[in-house]
Design a protein that fits this description.
CATH topology: TIM Barrel
Radius of gyration: 19 Å
Number of strands: 11
Number of domains: 1
CATH architecture: Alpha-Beta Barrel
Distance between the termini: 35 Å
Structural class: alpha/beta
Strand content: 5-15%
Oligomer: single chain
C-alpha cells in the first residue's frame, strides 16, 4: 500500500543560541566572556532533534553565526537530520544597536559561515530577539539584498525590543526597492484588545497547554499557517542562573521545565514543517537555486543558462 505524504500545514522554528545570548541579560562584560561560559547548546539541540524525530517532523533552525563558528558539529547534526538551516545573524546584536553598514556585515558574515558548514544556500533570516522595528526600516532591504529569500523577524505588535504595529500578521511578500522578500511573521492573536505573540516560547511556557492549543486552533481554523518560534535554551531547565532584574529573570526562567512536554503536545496536535516546505513559493525558489548550484558546479555546463527563480 502506497504511503501518502501530506505537506505540513504549519511552521515550526527554533533559534539556536546559548542561554547567555539572551538579550535581556546582554552586557559588554558578558559579551567579553562568551567564550569562557560553558556551552549547553548541543545538549539542548540534541533533545529537540529527538523530539522532532519521535514525531517525524522537520523544522527550521535559525542559527547564530558565532555559535556555528564555535560549534559547527551542532549545525551539521541539524542539517544531517534533514532540517532547514537559516540565519540568526552573527553576534546577537539588536538591529537598532547597529548601523546599516554593521548590520550588513553581521548577516553577511553569518550567512557565509553557515553556508560553508552546510554546503547549501542559506535563504532564511531572523533578527536576534525579532528586533527589526519601525525604527530600522532599512533592515529588510539589506536582508533581501544579501540574498535571503525570506525574513521571520517582524511582529505586527509592540513587543519589548521587537515589533512593527500595523503590519500584516500573516505570511506575505514585500515589494522592496527592486527586489522581493517573503515575510513569515510569528503567530499573534488579539487577546482582550491587545495583539499578543502567542507563537513564541514564552507563551508556550506561560499558558496552560489547553489554552494555547485553543488559541492556535483559531488560527488554523482561518486556514492560515501557525508560525511557532522557540529558543534552544528554552528546553534546558537546568541551565545556570544569571542575575538581572526580577522581571528579566522571571521571564527567562519561568516554566522552563514544562517546555519539552508542551512541545511534545504541540507536535502531537498540529502538523508542522520548515518554512521552505510550507510556503510553496519559497520551496520552489529553493529548488531552483539548488538546481542552479548543481548546474554551475559542472564545468561542462558552465556556458548553459541557469534556471530562473520562480516568482509568485
Amino acid at each position: 500500500m502506497q504511503r501518502i505524504v501530506r505537506r505540513p500545514r504549519h511552521i515550526l522554528t527554533f533559534d539556536i543560541e546559548e542561554h547567555f545570548h539572551a538579550s535581556r541579560f546582554d552586557s559588554s562584560m558578558r559579551r567579553r566572556n562568551w567564550s569562557s561560559f560553558h556551552s549547553r547548546a548541543q545538549a539542548s539541540v540534541e533533545r529537540i532533534l529527538e523530539l522532532l524525530a519521535l514525531h517525524s517532523t522537520k523544522a527550521t533552525f535559525f542559527s547564530l553565526g558565532w555559535l556555528a563558528e564555535q560549534h559547527p558539529a551542532i549545525i551539521r547534526a541539524v542539517s544531517a537530520a534533514g532540517h532547514e538551516i537559516a540565519c540568526l545573524g552573527y553576534g546577537h546584536e539588536l538591529v537598532a544597536a547597529q548601523t546599516p553598514q554593521l548590520f550588513r556585515a553581521d548577516i553577511r558574515r553569518a550567512k557565509r559561515i553557515l553556508e560553508d558548514i552546510t554546503g547549501s544556500e542559506i535563504v532564511g533570516y531572523r533578527a536576534p530577539s525579532l528586533s527589526i522595528t519601525a525604527h530600522t526600516p532599512w533592515a529588510l532591504q539589506i536582508v533581501a539584498e544579501e540574498g535571503f529569500q525570506y525574513d521571520s523577524s517582524v511582529l505586527p505588535i509592540r513587543h519589548g525590543l521587537a515589533g512593527i504595529p500595523g503590519t500584516s500578521p500573516w505570511i506575505h511578500r514585500l515589494a522592496l526597492e527592486g527586489i522581493y522578500l517573503w515575510e513569515i511573521p510569528p503567530s499573534t492573536m488579539n487577546l482582550g484588545g491587545f495583539r499578543k505573540a502567542i507563537g513564541g516560547g514564552g507563551y508556550l511556557r506561560a499558558f496552560r497547554y489547553p489554552v494555547l492549543k485553543s488559541l492556535l486552533s483559531r488560527i488554523e481554523a482561518l486556514d492560515e499557517p501557525i508560525v511557532v518560534y522557540l529558543r534552544s535554551w528554552e528546553i534546558d531547565a537546568a541551565q545556570p542562573r544569571m542575575r538581572d532584574t526580577v522581571l528579566s529573570e522571571f521571564r527567562h526562567y519561568f516554566n522552563l521545565d514544562k517546555t519539552a512536554g508542551r512541545l511534545d503536545q504541540l507536535l502531537t496536535d498540529f502538523q508542522f514543517g520548515p518554512v521552505s516546505e510550507v510556503v510553496l513559493a519559497i520551496h520552489d525558489q529553493v529548488l531552483s537555486a539548488s538546481a542552479r548550484t548543481a548546474l554551475n558546479s559542472d564545468p561542462r555546463d558552465a556556458q548553459q543558462e541557469s534556471p530562473q527563480l520562480t516568482t509568485v
